[in-house]
Predict the structure.
Amino acid sequence: MTFRKCLMAAAMAGAGFVMTGGGAWAAAGDECVKVLGYEWSGEKQSMDPADMHSGDDAYHTFAVYNRLVDVDDNFKVLPELATEWSSSADGLTWTFKLREGVKFHSGKDFTSADVVYSFKRLLDPALGSGAQAVLAFLDANGIKAVDKYTVSFTTPKPVAELPVLITNKFTNIVPDGAKHEDLILHEDGTGPFMQEQFTPNAPVRILKKNPNYWQAGLPKADCLRITVAQEPVAAVSAIKAGQVDLVLNVDPSVIPALKDDPSVTLLQTGASNSMTISMWIDTKPFDNVKVREAMKMVVDRQAMIDTVLLGYGEPGADNPVPIPNPASYVKEAPKQDIAGAKKLLAEAGYPDGLSFDLYTAEGVPGMVRMAQVYAEMAKPAGFNINVIVTPAESFWDDVWLKKSIVTSAWSMRPPGEGLAVAYTQTAKWPETHWVRPDYDALLLKANTTVDPAARLKLYQDAGKMLATEGGLILPMFVHQVVALRKGCDGYQPLAQNFNLNFENLSCK
């Protein structure tokens, strides 16, 4: 049986079965709370938080690790391994007081040395973590242990939002001296759950309760069984049959099948994932800014939300900052302009239209439909787009970053991080080949500007530059919907959808 067939069969037959040596299906972790995800990292699955490839890795990473601080949906900073923090008068040094009495799963005491090591490790180019691009404002030499339970970050320039900016998905704390080659397969975190069963590319992973977790009374579940189903019907079938307890992202196309089901509760976030079409701006025909502008003008954003997301979303403006955010450079979504797009396409040298392939997959729910709807919207302007649908389980490895135009999706991030994660020169995932030193300088200036109004203006300028000149089409942000089986409670989805909090989740 191929891996794809094995995975799909697992989802359909209970979303958590593994093949035994004798060839029979055997249940794994039946006593656990059963979580069903939608993204898949395949052979690149890793227990190292510095090495997260997709949302799939977050399913286990955020269950077994903690960050220094957490954030809510409004990016208000909350205590986690740090209990309090403050800035020096000159704004150059942030000091964090750490929680005492915390232990790693290995039994080692958590101290400031672990925080210093974790952040210096992320800044090391040799590690190749995606964190390097979004932590560019940090100076490794400025990260110091003041005492056993105090750590300080001193930066070359003031970073007023440092506590927010260090809450990216890579900054979970690992023990001092932990090596990447060990952490890939064997975690050592301080989080509510501990690794029990994990093999990269396997359809099931099982995490057990940490009996020494620093939050008294948590976690509420004895264990988690995590699986993936990238077929919407499989996810619906599994939760309706009571074979899974929590579906982390319900495809909008199947929400009607669950909406009136008394055995299922649907929970919705605000603006969460962004849905994107990304093109290489150094490759024909996308190297012409008029072509890129025309491609953005063909989108009817509200119609796309209504068609692709069934209304569960809000318009975007071709940059990672949601329009209601004060850091957005516009106050309303761009309007569709077919005539304007046709004119620009002709000026770019394509008076008879332009044809190209657009690669997509159901890497996250709705991506394929977005590509198809976009192709139809672009036709009247002279674009002939051939949508190529590839296998979901291999899209992020074999297609994304390897084809000149693809669909993509990104988790919600604060402006300083969202504008950097894929668009600075040091970005690990440069999906648009946007190499602009002036953009990088603008963003760094924004992240190191103390005055709030001036900082917002700089974020707006960066967002405008990316939206008007870059290779990013961001038509909409998803309002992510999760499904919870009746008898389960204690789970609340967050807009920063990689930030998965399973501590309070329990099922009868």
